[in-house]
Amino acid sequence: MIPYGRQSIDEEDIQAVVEVLRSDWLTTGPKVDEFERAFADLVGAKEAVAVCNGTAALHGAIYALGIQSGDEVIVPPITFVASANCVVFQGGVPVFADVDPDTLLLDPVQAESKITPRTKAIIAVDYTGQPCDYEKLQALAHQHGLALVADACHSLGGEYKGRPVGSLADLNVFSFHPVKHITTGEGGMITTNDYTLARRVRMFRNHGITTDHRQREELGSWFYEMVDLGYNYRITDFQCALGLSQLKKLPGWVTRRQEIARHYDKAFASLAEIEPLDVGKNLTHAYHLYVVRLNLEKLQGERTEIFAALRAAGIGVNVHYIPVHLHPFYRQHFATKPGDCPIAESAYERLLTLPLHPKMSSQDIESVINAVLDALSSFLKG
Ligand SMILES: Cc1ncc(COP(=O)(O)O)c(C=O)c1O
Q: Is pLDDT larger for residue 217 or for residue 327?
């Protein structure tokens, strides 16, 4: 099976981890600082705070903004559930605003239509690796006094109008899960140019305590105070060593992802039964995912059958995502329902994610393309 995504780990990565395992600091040590500095520099942000996963990073962002009970945060429905759950963690209400039909990214016009006196922030999700329209979203946020969070878990290495992802919103969130651009096993990062927000996230990842163990050791002090409710969202030093080693390979991996996407684009360009998502101008798509829309009017059978045929052919296709507002939890607790976001809902029925990761060989790419062409021709309406 050619998986839809997978990590690339080499001997240099393994050695970097082993070195830390032999050192004095396994967690909250110098490698955390080093990884944060390298990451901040890479994305052009003043501050980066590393945490144990992307969900913790989203939670930290929502905490840092002071979102609390009853506050509303605008979120697109085509995303992983964590993009909305982070609002619920702090007692807030995620309000789903529909997506652009061509890119499936949060539509700034739809977002504006959901703003109420209780709205505090917008979470933009760079779905598949394509940066959202940050110029329009920043203007909207500014006009209404809202914070803008970028869920950039898909778009590390991307750019919007010449500016790197990671410096486009007030707080920018990343995940280092193995299918993402770089991995630390589990891991996440928040970047910001706001020192106060960064300080709040640092405290939040360490139980709401103002200093960490290493700082107290350096000061020769045992005293600490917990000033707010936080969590243990820390990341280990050996994970950060892996992150640092992986970061060096990011540019090459993004280029390879883009190359694979070009192969797919070319292979499917003349087919009416399948349509890749549109890509906007003046941006660099980081291609975490390659998502196509099936033209079900031209095909017999449902997406499920085409999915099963491709899986049977050894192609690890997937579906990203079930619109978040349709999950039972949201229907039960927030009274969301089908019809709330019609563009996302109708797109969802047709979505299919094809394998895309830097380790794919030319043979793998050919196999995916041939299997898709075979499946489409066998499901073509007569
Ligand atoms: C868009 C998006 N947001 C948030 C997350 C959560 O990241 P993690 O799995 O590291 O908690 C993911 C990861 O799957 C994601 O794809």
A: 327
Which pLDDT band holds residue 230 (cuts at 50, 70, 90)? very high
The maximal CA–CA distance of the chain, rounded, in angstroms, is 79
- Measured between alpha carbons, how far is 189 from 197 in angstroms, rounded to an integer? 13
Q: Identify the bridge partners of residue 122 per DSSP, sorted by sequence position.
A: 74, 148
Walk across the sheet containing 283-284 and list its strands.
163-164, 159-160, 283-284
Active-site residue list = 180
Q: Between the CA atoms of 39, 44, 49 and 52, what dihedral angle is there, to the nearest 10 degrees?
A: -50
pLDDT of residue 86: 98
**Residues near ligand 1 with C-beta < 6 Å?**
53-55, 58, 79-80, 82-83, 125, 151, 153-154, 175, 177, 188
- Label residues 112-134 b or e (16+ Cβ within 10 Å = b): beebeeebbbbbbbbbbbbbbbb
Counting ligand 1 atoms within 8 A of each CB, the residue from 78, 80, 173 with the most, and so the one to mutate, is 80
CA 96, distance to chain mean position in Å, is 17
Judged by DSSP in three states, 293 sits in: strand
pLDDT in tens, 146-163: 999 999 999 999 999 999
How remote is the CA of residue 186 from the centroid of ligand 1, in Å?
10
How far is 215 from 120, CA to CA, in rounded Å?
Answer: 34
Q: Round to whole Å and give the CA distance between 117 and 146.
A: 11
Residue of 83, 153, 173, 180 with the most ligand 1 atoms within 8 Å of its CB, for mutation: 153
CA of 222 to the centre of ligand 1 (A): 36
- Pick the atom of ligand 1 nearest to 188's CA: 10
- Residue 248's pLDDT is 98
As a whole-number percent, the residues of the chain with pLDDT over 70 amount to 100
Q: Is the pTM of this model over 0.90?
A: yes
Average pLDDT, the chain: 97
Determine whether 63 is exposed, middle or buried from the number of CB atoms within 10 Å of its CB (0-12, 13-18, 19+): buried
Beta bridge partners of 149: 123, 171
Assigned token pair, 371:
């299997």
Report the Cα–Cα distance between both ends of the chain, in Å, rounded: 30
| Cβ–Cβ < 8 Å for 81, 322 | no
Closest CA to 24 of 187, 213, 176: 213
